[in-house]
Design a protein that fits this description.
Elements lengths: L8 E5 L4 H12 L4 E6 L2 H15 L4 E5 L6 H12 L4 E4 L9 H23 L8 E6 L12 H17 L2 H7 L1 E8 L15 H4 L1 H8 L6 H14 L5 E4 L6 E3 L1
Parallel strand pairs: 1-2, 1-4, 2-3, 4-5, 5-6, 6-7
Antiparallel strand pairs: 7-8
Amino acid sequence: MAKDLKNKVVVITGGAVGIGFETADRFLQKGAKVVILLDIDEKQGVETAKILNSKYGANKAVFYKCDVTKDLDAVTKLIYDSYKYVDVLVNNAGILNDLLLKKTIDINVTALIEWSFKYWERMRKDKGGNGGTIINLASIYGFRIDQFLPIYQASKFAVMGFTKSLGHEYNYKRSGVRVVAICPGFTETKLTANVQTWDNEGFGKDLTVFIKQKAWQKVDSVGKAAVEIFENADSGTAWLIEGAKPIVAVA
C-alpha cells in the first residue's frame, strides 16, 4: 500500500481543535485531497474548516457535526454518498476525565472500536474496497501506568490492544487495511487544561507537582508525528511522540 497522503480522502473525529485540527492541517500540507472534520462542537468545526479552506483552497476541508457515540451510521452515509471512498480514518475524538467512567469508555473505547470496524469493512480489499489506513489516538497511558488516572489509562490500554489485534499482519494481509496507533505524551490541549481524576481531593499537591514535572509538547509535534507515522509505520504498530522528540516504536 502506498504510504503517501497525496489525493487521500481523510476522516478525522474530534477534528475541530487540538491534535485533530493539527493533523488535518499537516495532512493537507502533504497533499490530501480533502479532510472531513467530525466534531460535536459545531461552531468551532465550521470555523476550523473555514481556516483550512482559506489556507489550502475551497472544499479541502469539510465539517460535519458528529457525536461519535451516536452518529456513526448517519455520518458515514453522508461521507460515502459524497466521496464514494475513504482512504484514512483518524480516531482522534477522546475524553480525559476520570470522574466520568461510562462516558470515558463510551468515547475512548466503544466509539473508537465501532468507527474502526465500520471503516475497516468499507476499506478492505477482499470485500471490494481500495485498502486504507486507520490511525487510533492512544496515549503514553496505553503502555505506562501511574496512580492518578486509572480509568483513562484503562481506556487507552484498550485502544492499544484493539489496534495491535485488528492491525495484526494476518488481518492486514487479507484486508489491505493498515491499523496503527499514536501515543502522545503530555500535550497542551483542551483535554489536559484541567485534569480531573477519580480522587481530586486526595491527590492534592502531589498531582500538581507530577503534572508540572512532565515533558510537555504542543500539538504541532503530534501533527508532525501523525504524518511521519502514516508515511512509515507498519500495520499493528504503535508510536510514541513525547516531549517533541523523534517518534519511537513502542511494544
